[in-house]
Design brief:
The protein has helices at residues 7-23, 26-34, 40-53, 71-83, 91-104, 107-118, 233-248, 251-267, 280-308, 316-339, 362-368, 379-389, and strands at 124-127, 143-147, 150-157, 168-174, 185-191, 197-203, 209-222, 226-227. The chain contains 12 helices and 8 strands. Helix content is 47%, strand content 14%. The chain has 3 domains: 7-89, no CATH class; 124-230, Butyryl-CoA Dehydrogenase, subunit A, domain 2, CATH 2.40.110.10; 249-389, Butyryl-CoA Dehydrogenase, subunit A, domain 3 (Up-down Bundle), CATH 1.20.140. It has 393 residues and is α+β, with helices and mostly antiparallel strands. A hairpin with a 5-residue loop joins strand 6 (197-203) and strand 7 (209-222).
Amino acid sequence: MSIFHTPELRAFRAEVRAFLQQHLSDDLVHATRAGLHLEREPMARWQAALHARGWGAPHWPKALGGTGWNELQRYIFEEESAFADAPLGDVHGLFLAGPMVIAEGTAEQQARYLPPVLAGQEFWCQGFSEPNAGSDLASLKTTARLDGDDWVINGQKTWLSSGHHADLMFCLARTDLDVKPQAGLTQFIVDMRAPGISLHPIMTIDEGHSVNAVFFDNVRTPRHNVIGALNQGWTYAKELLARERVNNAQAPRTKRDILELDRIARTRCDAAGRPLIDDPRVRRRLAAITADFVALESAALGVLAEQMAGVEPGPAASTLKIRGSELQQRVSETAMLLLGQASVVLAAGYGGGLHAPDGLGWAERHFFRRVVTIYAGANEIQKTIIAKSILDM
């Protein structure tokens, strides 16, 4: 019997499903189905609804706004949310900044920054990558120097996901130039409205605006906005990136997409009028994707159980990131193959509501997912981490 098929978990799934049916509006569903790059308003609105129910951050400690759910309940919640096409919300605040402030922040920082994330009132972005410091993050050049009661930041960050929606940034900057690169970095909280910040949009291959470049020109942030200990930012960054890689595996959302592939294959026909699912090549392709997903889901549940027990994911996060990102690409490629010309339906301006054509959103996913094997640490770098940490090579 499946580990999910206990009376308690079936009742919990029904509770989650009923909440989604009652509170998830048609326009939020359509926005999620139509594209990857949601505006702030629908994400904030849905986060506020979850917060009102007490479900704003299931993975946070209960004392700080979490639910107290176990790993199976959390996975069921994420799975049902994906099946219902609920917005993801502020990923950077909920899954990255929030847990880092919980783990390393002061009580004052927790009281100030956690409640607005839960309520969908403040959004975050991640200031890590630079033009010449992507996978080699330790070589970053952005500096911070202490001037009285403020740190003064100068430099540049790029690929700033959702920076145009963000109120705050967690920023990695160099605070000691005389030590080895990894030893002189510190994490800061930076107000995105601070004087000296200049944000510039970057349009990606899918013609969407989700990433940005940001320049710091003597940007001041208060001394108390250091997260954790001075010059320990590299340690915190590694832990944060491991959490990001687990989240980027996107198992529940990929499962929803795979079920959609099956539906498309059963309802669309070839030139001879036969359902696509009758083609052995289509069945083999879907079977291979499904088998690989089952392996991914099993591994994700194992890491999730460790996280819920307070154990950081470590090198296992790299395996999830590799397999999850590759699977996302294969899913979108398969959708484009099954849909043919119908896959080029564009989301912009489409007024079809919930009765949208099969192809809506798939072209955007397909193009944007070229990047999923690159961000959060390129897959080639992840393979090196696995070789060193797991295989002792």
